[in-house]
Amino acid sequence: MTRKKIILIFFFFCLLMQWINREKKGSTLLKPDQPPETWIANVPPANTPATSYFPLITISWKGGDTDGYIKGFYFRWNTFHKVRGDSIIREFQYTTATSDTIAFESSDKINYQVLEVKAVDNKDIIDPTPAT
After folding, report:
1. What's residue 112's pLDDT?
2. At 51, is the pLDDT very low, low, confident or very high (cuts 50, 70, 90)?
3. Euclidean distance between CA atoms 113 and 111, whole angstroms
4. How far is 120 from 110, CA to CA, in rounded Å?
5. From CA 87, how far away is CA 82, in angstroms rounded?
6. If DSSP codes are grouped into helix, strand and coil, which group holds residue 5?
7. Residue 45, SS3 per DSSP
8. Whole-number pLDDT of residue 26
9. What is residue 127's predicted lDDT score, i.e. its pLDDT?
């Protein structure tokens, strides 16, 4: 066989494969974009009388994305006053940092603090399940 015939057969074989793949219903070569994941890296231990906290704590977080990269995070912390029964719910703040020193509000005798962090990937997809 000549070189031209081999190239021609290879070319038609490639066209045939494309046509066959196009005929398959519902098949796709690309997965839909996946949301990123978020983790809190240094979760403080539970507060006990032996380990009471100063309300100023540095907390770190990280994110991962299987089909891109992390470009930032949204984070917030909410305070629930257990004796008074009221709460302080904050809006999410955007940051590119992976840690922050947070002054947790502690004006009640017993306070419950919840930190939420959600990663944002390079396609602006936000983690639907924030790390808490």
Report:
1. 87
2. low
3. 6
4. 33
5. 9
6. helix
7. coil
8. 53
9. 97
Q: Which is higher by pLDDT, 97 or 52?
A: 97
Q: Is the pLDDT reported for residue 126 higher than 70?
A: yes
Cβ within 8 Å of residue 117, ≥6 positions away: 38, 40, 61, 73, 74, 75, 130, 131, 132
3-state per-residue secondary structure call for 66-125:
CCCCEEEEEEEEEEEECCCCCEECCCCEEECCCEEEEECCCCCCCEEEEEEEEEEECCCC
- Distance CA(122)–CA(2), nearest Å, equals 49
The residues facing 64 across adjacent strands are: 37
Rounded CA-CA distance 63/119 in Å is: 6
Residue 131, both tokens = 């790390």
Whole-angstrom Cα distance, residue 47 to residue 45?
Answer: 6
Q: Mean pLDDT, the chain, as a whole number?
A: 84
> Over 80: is that where the pLDDT of 24 sits?
no
